[in-house]
Amino acid sequence: MKYISLVIVSFLFSTNLFAQNAVISGKVTDANDVVPYANVYLKGTSLGATTDENGKYIINNIPAGKYELVASFISYIKSIKTITAAANSKQNIDIELKPDLSRLNEIVVSGTMKPMSRLESPVPVEVYSAEFFKSNPTPSIYEALQNVNGVRPQINCAVCNTGDIHINGLEGAYTMVTIDGMPIVSGLSTVYGLSGIPQSLIERVEIVKGPASTLYGSESVGGLINVITKNPDNAALFSADIFTTTWGELNADIATKFKAGEKADALVGVNYFNFNNRIDNNNDNFTDVTLQNRISVFNKWNIKRKENRIFSIAGRYVYEDRFGGEMDWNADDHRGGDEVYGESIYTSRWELLGTYQLPIKERVILMFSANSHDQNSVYGNTIYIADQKIGFGQLTWNKELGEKNDLLFGAAMRYTYYDDNTPATATSDSLNPQNAPANTFLPGIFIQDEISINEYNKVLLGMRYDYNSIHGNIFTPRFNYKWTSKNKSNILRFSFGTGYRVANVFTEDHAALTGARKVEFLSDLNPETSYNGNINYVKKIFTKNDWYVGLDGSLFYTYFTNKIFPDYDTDPNKIIYDNLDGHAVSNGFSLNVDATYKNLSLMAGGTVMDVYSVQNGLKEQQELTEQYTGTWSVGYTFVKLNVKVDYTGNLYGPMKLPLLGAEDPRPEFSPWWSIQNIQLTKIFANGLEIYGGAKNLLNWVPWTNLGDAGLIARTNDPFDKNVAFTPGGEVIQTASNPYSFTFDPTYVYGPNQGIRGFFGIRFTFDK
After folding, report:
1. What are the residues facing 529 on neighbouring strands?
2. pLDDT digits (tens, 9 = 90+) for 404-422
3. Does some domain include residue 167?
4. Among 196, 384, 716, 725, which residue carries the largest CB count within 10 Å?
5. What is the pTM of this model?
6. Both 370 and 510 in a single domain?
């Protein structure tokens, strides 16, 4: 009887408990359809469910009380509803999610040359918004990329501080930089034109790592950086961003938009940067940072047409006066002379680009661009005057065949005119040399087919054929595969592609023009060819306590043949160029982590890579290429104060440096080094922001304890007037030259600018 009573009491107690619990069920939809595999839960509890294939969910055994019902899914804005669960009740609560295109599902164009969801793209594309770059304000997009994992601005000259952009360890010549998809930042401007792109007009930056030659042709062997400018329709009526630093730098970005009648909207932006403060903290009598005076004007027009067809046209003009050298140099007395050393570069550049959709039923788009780059520069008493003009046109036809195939056909023509005062554009007749500007024609056709096998599997096949008027036929195929899990929280991509590059040494390698090294070509340079494989995995995680975590990892491998190899070591007085008699490899692993929790945001990334060449059975690490790199950006907003704190930084591992022979006492490898920054931003309700902080918090600069060897070799004799040479051109070791040095500024691996404060004001007016 005792046990029977216990069973009855237990039954009644459990029945009473069950009677107190509620049940909530319903359906999750968006504007068009149901949303399967969405996460639905009661905040602050362990109770939740996942919607089925029909978008339905059910949550059982809910104790009576008041809750927040949360529904979340990748690429949608989180839905939060306050509900009351009554005892022994059943409620039907349907939830509608709205798409969120701001971060998780951006529209990208770089991977496939047509607008599509980033998550749906079979080509992995990284996207960085204008807000990302605000966390560490810089005068140009070139410097801003220092906080992007696997992307590093590389300074190539310790005197004039010109540089390029490395992707996964590959030199800047392998990186194609486009503006609105147009390949106009190339050739000469890979060295001198990158710093003229104002940040105020940037909508976002898309980065594709790995060869994109199938769509973009030469130069995109290592990757693609596509700078997307703002649309006049979406831009603010007026915006300004002005900041200065304690070193005396001044940067101003001002933009406005206006209407010209009922059918045209225009956006105008001006960027001005000035630094005219000669600083020599390392006491070598050379400027630590180059002086710059730069102005850039940008104007973009959108023309309204019938049926919303596209027509936009934009132009940009950049002028820059850049100087680095001895502290007492001046242009009037010393430019081009051999008394006081200076590197002075005058750059004048204009660009025109546009997009026009043909007035026909099919989606056929004409893209066109033209640019002219005039450069007047001196490196000591070496004068380099160059003129480059590029014209580009491309016609694409996007055609869907049924529900499975999305075809893109394209035809392109690129014309390059290049002339300078070097042997690169002179006839080979040594007795009667004649100027012979290079005229290169590069027509090409390409096709790609995006095949949707089913909802979760997609294949992209592509092929491009180019005919270079100098080097002949070039084929570049590619293959991409993408798998998406049912709940879209897992994405796996496999990519394979080939790339090619036709080099112009004098426009790409600044070392070919500076210092006393002579340039020597062992043979006619053939186009480089690369074969690239990439595995990319993306994981999106939403937790019930409001954390979002995104993981993006990639394994990459690129194999080069015909790699153009600058040899600095065989003869310290020469740079010897030749196609590598062997092969080169760039391979590694990268991981990006993107996390948010309420007012906290975190982006961090790391890359491990091995970049080397193999010749005659010997493996040699590539110079000026780190094996380990890390970046981070942490932001926290104090909501009540309307104050945001941003902490950004990067970390680089050792890289091999170019020494000047066996007697060079300087380290062969750089140390670990890091640049870290902090910023406070006060946000006001009227569109005003005031910000300030410190750059290079650790006050890191390259070695200051190298003694008389110095970062720049022989700053006391930059014209090598007191250097003794053998009849064969080798340096003779003397008491005044114990290291057998000639003047050389290539021993540089990081910026030579220490800690500095900054202060700025942003204002946006949009009424």
Report:
1. 500, 561
2. 999 999 999 999 898 888 7
3. no
4. 196
5. 0.85
6. yes
